[in-house]
Amino acid sequence: MIQIPKDEIKYEKTNESSRAILHCYHGSPSPREMHKGAKSHDVQGLKKKDLDNLLTIDGDYTSKFTIGIEIEKNRFYRRVYEELNLIKGYEEDGSCGYEAITNILPLLPASVWRQKVFNMVHEAKYIIEDRYSPSNANCGGHITLCCNGMDSTELHQRLRKHVGILYAMFQRRLKNSYCRYNMRMLKTEPTGNRWRPARELEGVNYRGDFHHKYQVCLDKGNGLVEFRLPSRFTSVKQTMRRYELMYVLMDVAVNKPRTSHDSLMKRVKPILMSMYERNEEKVAYVMSQAKHYKQFILNGNIHEDISDFTRAYQYTISRNS
Amino acid sequence: MREHLLQIENDFLASSEVRSHMNITRIDALAMDIKDKRKSQFDQSLKFAKLVKASYDWFKSEDGQNMFNDNGLTWTNEDFYTKAICISKAHFYRVIKVAKICEENPQIVTKYKRECTAEENAGNPTERSVAELIKRANGTSTSQDDNESSTETLVTFSMKKTMFEDGRGLSIRILSDGEIKTSGDAHGKISDAMMEQLKAISVAIINSNNN
Q1: Of A217, B53, B134, B168, which is most buried by a Cβ count within 10 Å?
Q2: ipTM here
Q3: pTM of the entire predicted model
Q4: Which residues of chain B make contact with A114, given a CB cutoff of 8 A?
Q5: Cβ of B8 and A115 within 8 Å?
Q6: According to the 3-state scheme, what is the secondary structure of B19-56?
């Protein structure tokens, strides 16, 4: 068959040695902007509503939504640090051992472009898969999101209305003191200081449930919102599912903020089914918990089904009331 | 053969899970055999068609789609035939057509083979071809019984797939004997009255040309 060259983005390595060595905490190189420069072939077949989540600059496409993840591990496979398109660099991490931090990735719906992002994830399997690079419960799976043109506080508050599903998926982590504060995702003020990224906002009563960093979802400022709640990344498939879920949450939060809980669940169900190996019962449980968490985040109501997981919060506010 | 695939696609096609549903190795081997003139091209083509169709059926199935999605792959039909089977669109649809004939009308295949063998035994070398088989199945072969009355298409109306909710186009043919032939669910999409109107238009066109 004759292969016609296509107008498409090709991700290639930089060959910068700094991307293939271990750095100290916060010492890895700046991220590459992988969310820019897609071509027509990469976005072909996308529906109009999905194309609206892209910007066109000089004929190239830029993703409005971006994502970055931290892959925390006790050690990396064979302790070899290799440059990967997915990874901006490797760092030491106090709580866990080591972490690989991704470049700025486009957050996309199903498309040729997304397949290329998933290909990067696949190429990083020796870093992501627990069977090669083991992790333990001390490791987290922090996910940072950004929407071009939207202030981080607004994005934080928009996401707040829809992220009950993340609480339901990672409800055990609500007991973890490194990611459980500001459980109701009340508004905070970004400081611009990476060591103490958030401070209490005047007029907001956190009832003692505040930490300058260890929050469920941290408003980092500069357009960035970081979910600290997700558990560690243990497989390529899990990483892809979380990516898909984040796209839906961002799309709903930014473009369709009035989406009902049921409509959102309908959209995320296929992703959950894949995540939970098509176990209908498990998925139904997670979805029902998501509803209780949504009520909790928005109104502070604690349903008995989520009472055990929110005990730390209950204890904190009882001490401060 | 598959040079332009992403690593994720290559590894997916090479996985044992996928190979149990899409026998790519065998498909590749048959494709090579078909190119090899010394072998019986026709029989290999039939085998090839059956395997491609089985793979395609799995690809379209819920199980297949789930497996693709689980592995982060969103493939269109075009991706399937260009990336997995490595053939062109026209070739792919011809192959599927052949597989359908084998499945739904095996007697046509048997009859065609028997006739070819008879010709060969009579000392007339004939080349068995997939194209001829498709013609037989479509009833358009020139070598079929001469006593079958032949009709020709005089006028064709075709409607784009984007016009209909199910995304399938429609074609209406007016034959020389006055019969109207349609592809797809014409009656679900077009009223009988409109069909008659089309026929009337056709007749008017034919008459004006004859005059």
Answers
A1: A217
A2: 0.86
A3: 0.82
A4: 72, 74
A5: yes
A6: HCCCCHHHHHHHHHHHHCCCCCHHHHHHHHHHHHHHHH
